[in-house]
Amino acid sequence: MSELKVPTMAEMMASGQQPDVLFWVGCAGSFDDRAKKITRAFVKILNNVGVNFAVLGTEESCTGDPAKRAGNEFLFQMQAMGNIQVLNAYEIKSIVTTCPHCFNTLKNEYPELGGDYAVKHHSQFLQELINEGKLSIEGGAFKGKKITFHDPCYLGRANDVYEAPRTLIEKLDAELVEMKRCKSKGLCCGAGGAQMFKEAEKGDKEINIERTEDAMEVKPDVIATGCPFCMTMMTDGVKLKEKEAEVKVFDLAELIAEAKDL
Amino acid sequence: MNISIIVFIALIVVAAGLFAKNVKTIIRNIKLGKDLDRNDRKGERLNLMARVAMGQSKMQARPVVGILHFIVYAGFIIINIEVLEIVLDGILGTHRLFSPLGSLYTVLISTFEILALLVLVSCVIFLIRRNILRIKRFFSPEMEGWPKTDANLILIAEVLLMSAFLIMNAVDAQLQVLGSEHYTKVASFPISGLLEGVFASASESSLILLERGLWWFHIIGIFAFLNYLPYSKHFHILLAFPNVFYSKLEPKGQLPNMAAVKKEVELMFDPNADPYAAPPEPVGEPERFGAKDVTDLNWKQLMDAYTCTECGRCTDVCPANQTGKALSPRKILMDTRDRLEEVGKGIDKNGKDYDDGKSLLRDYIKEEELLACTSCNACTEACPVNNDPLSVIVDLRQYLIMEESKAPAEWTGIFTNIENNGAPWQFAQADRLKWKDED
């Protein structure tokens, strides 16, 4: 087991340091067993590159996204203002997160409530590291593999980020294959709008199955995504189709960490 | 003054008056919505309107229909120059007033005729798509009855109007050949000219009767069509432009923060606030959280409903709808319009404070529909006129949760967890960094 260096803001503050960027882990990244692997993969990259970052650790709390989408504006704003107090007290200027839902909320909905930060999704952050020459990827494990990217709604349509994830996949020397419904026409995995946390309404199919079938159509080796909730949905879909031996579901950070053998 | 001129002018006055009255009602209805400021970033808005409304950029996502629709749109706009001539002829008692334009007139007439034929063909293709090919998105439950009839009536009306226009020209051309009085030799007719032989054996008087008959049919048809618009989904030909102009410009994922809630939460976070202070006297009616009825929505959401042309692109890409759930974003906006019309009629009959005891929520839109939404924005992305059905869904959800505390049990659970331990799951906040030491 590799030792991760994960400084908290409290530790940074105590030693009089300020990080360049705050890594907002998110609830899924903190608690969901599958998503924790994404968190660790991303931190491995950050450590490898030597990024000066910190996390809030136990001072982090839900951004309020699921509450807001469910219709509980009061709870959302309570969460938002609580988080903003913490972030502003630490004088945070820049945030990176591996969760598109946190990304959207922090970037778009916090400013009006007093929390104005430069917020990036980890795909954008990693692309910048590559552009700046700080991170290099040699094909490695995924060279020549067929990878399809499932656009998370809150990254793609919600915030028009389509290219950064694809650039990363291409850097792996992998073959990027697009599903019929991709980018702005990408089909939701079924988790957004707080659906993740309840049974689906009555219907004739689960949305994640529909989406998994989209992915299977292009016969990929890997389904890549950039959202811990899409991860759950797509992984479940692949399992239900009994394809987990042939098709793996990975987050972009995991692909890069794996390619770099971190 | 000639009797036909008097009849014609009377017709214009009635048609315009009736149309103005109906449009005024629609504007009044839209203004029943709550305030919303969409007057910022004018340049950006104009640009968007040029691209999405005038350029129909989002229609081109489906190129075949996109092109056919563009033809009908271009035809509609350009053939209006011909309608102007017809109206002026009617008022002045002239025939083909613009014909002294000479070769330019030939160009105009040729353009009108070619467009008229293209519009006619497009509308026939549209009718085939709806009634013979039976494209799936035109057959959702919300399309049964009037919406289906409405769509067919519009297409049939356009086919009839274009046919009348072309046949009228063909008869006119024959009268010109006969050297009939008033039918001065003008431009050649590239399309109707093909029908030349058809009327060769007809007498001059019957040709004049036919030409006049078609002329009146064409213009009365246009006036009737104009007055049909306010009752039809076809009103989008007017509202698409302002509707796109007033689009939401923020990123699609951004939902507005409710101002009333913000005030309360700020007070709770203010260390200087006196916890025992009497709450300030509320000014006016207390604001309702979220939307129960159409009057709780903002004016733009109501304008969306009147702009919706029921094409179903939203429903066609909705993940919930595509997997058999009750939600259809198109139905959300159709219900909003139907309910708004009902509220408007109630006000017309019984005064502005009339309450019929019904509401958009439950009488029109069921909870099951609202709860199926994943907020994925596929509907807003697909809408060719930038409607935002998602915003209506979220507002109705807010009413359910914040006014009625009516949430599915699992959601009540996540609310409690977020409140208690800062995550939708029941994990202690103190454990948030445990991932660091696991593998």
Explain this structure.
The complex is a heterodimer of chains A (262) and B (439). Chain A is an alpha/beta fold. Chain A has two domains: 120 residues, Rossmann fold; 123 residues, Rossmann fold (3-Layer(aba) Sandwich). Chain A is 43% helix and 11% strand. Chain A is built from eleven helices and eight strands. Chain A has a four-stranded parallel beta sheet with strand order 2-1-3-4. A four-stranded parallel beta sheet of chain A has the order 6-5-7-8, sandwiched between helices. In chain A, α3 crosses α11, α7 packs across α8 and α9 packs across α10. The N and C termini of chain A lie close together (11 Å). With 439 residues, chain B is an all-alpha fold. Chain B has two domains: 212 residues, Fumarate Reductase Cytochrome B subunit (Up-down Bundle); 150 residues, Fumarate Reductase Iron-sulfur Protein, Chain B, domain 2, CATH 1.10.1060.10. Helix content of chain B is 59%, strand content 0%. Chain B has 17 helices and no strands. In chain B, α5 packs antiparallel against α6 and α7 packs antiparallel against α9. The longest helix of chain B is centred in the middle third of the chain and has 33 residues. Chain B is elongated. The mean pLDDT of chain B is 94. At the A-B interface, α2, α3, α4, α5 and α6 of A face α8, α11, α15, α16 and α17 of B.
Please tell me how large the radius of gyration of chain B is. Answer: 28 Å
The first-level CATH class of the largest domain in chain B is given as: Mainly Alpha
* Class by SSE composition of chain A: alpha/beta
Q: Looking at the structure, what is the overall shape of chain A?
A: globular
- Largest Cβ-defined interface: A-B, 75 and 69 residues
- Main β-sheet description of chain A: 4 strands, parallel
Order of helices and strands of chain B: HHHHHHHHHHHHHHHHH
Number of E strands of chain B = 0
Q: Estimate percent helicity of chain B.
A: 55-70%
